Amino acid sequence: MCHVIVTCRSMLWTLLSIVVAFAELIAFMSADWLIGRAKPSGPEETDNRTGGPQEPYRPTLGIYGRCTRISHMQFSRRDTLCGPYAENFGEIASGFWQATAIFLAMGIMILCTVAFVSVFTMCVQSIMKKSIFNVCGLLQGIAGLFLILGLILYPAGWGCQKAISYCGPYASAYKLGDCSLGWAFYTAIGGTVLTFICAVFSAQAEIATSSDKVQEEIEEGKNLICLL
C-alpha cells in the first residue's frame, strides 16, 4: 500500500532540488556569462524616454550563444539579436568551453533527473531497500562535482579568439580583460552551492520521513501523513 508522507524537511528538499535544476539549466542556456566591452551608439540613435543619445551597448557572450546589436541601415536603428553562435558542438569557441559544456550538461541532466524523482518521494521512499533520499543525495553530490569542474574550466577559455573579440586584446585564460561576468555565471555558482546543500539536506529529509512518529501513524492505518 502506498503511504503518502509529507514532512516540512522533505518538501523543502524537493522544492530546492527543483529550483537548483532549473537555475542551472537557465544559466547554461543563457548568453549572459560574459559582458563585453561597451560599444558606443551611433549619433542617429536616441533614447525614446530622454531624447538624448542611447547608452553604449555591451554585447554578451555565453558558452555557445551570444547577444549583440545589428544595424538596420534603412531605418537607422538597431535591434538586439540573441542566439547560438555555434551551430554544432565542434564550433564552440574553445576546447575548454567544450569541456565546460560537457560537465555542465552532465551535472544538469543528473539534477533534472533528481528533481523529477523528488516529486514522487512523497509516495515512494525506498527502491530495492535503499532510501531514495540517500540515493538522490549521492547523485546531487556527483552532479555538484561535475558543475565545479565545468566552472573551473570555463575561465581557462577566456583567451580564445571569440572571447578576445568581446573582451579586448588583454583577455586571456583566467583574465577577463575589458569584460565583466554576467548573471548567468553567478547563477551557476549559486546553483552549485545549493546543489551540495541539497545533497546534505537529503539526509534530513530521509530522517524526517522515517521517524518514529511517521511509523506510528502508518501503524494506525493512515495513508496520508503530514508532519511539520
Automatic annotation (TrEMBL):
It is found in: Membrane. GO terms for biological process: single fertilization. The keyword Repeat does not apply. The chain crosses the membrane at residues 12-35, 96-120, 132-154, 183-203. Keywords: Fertilization, Membrane, Transmembrane, Transmembrane helix. It is a multi-pass membrane protein. GO terms for cellular component: membrane. Its main location: membrane. Gene3D superfamilies: 1.20.140.150. Belongs to the LHFP family. This is LHPL2 protein.
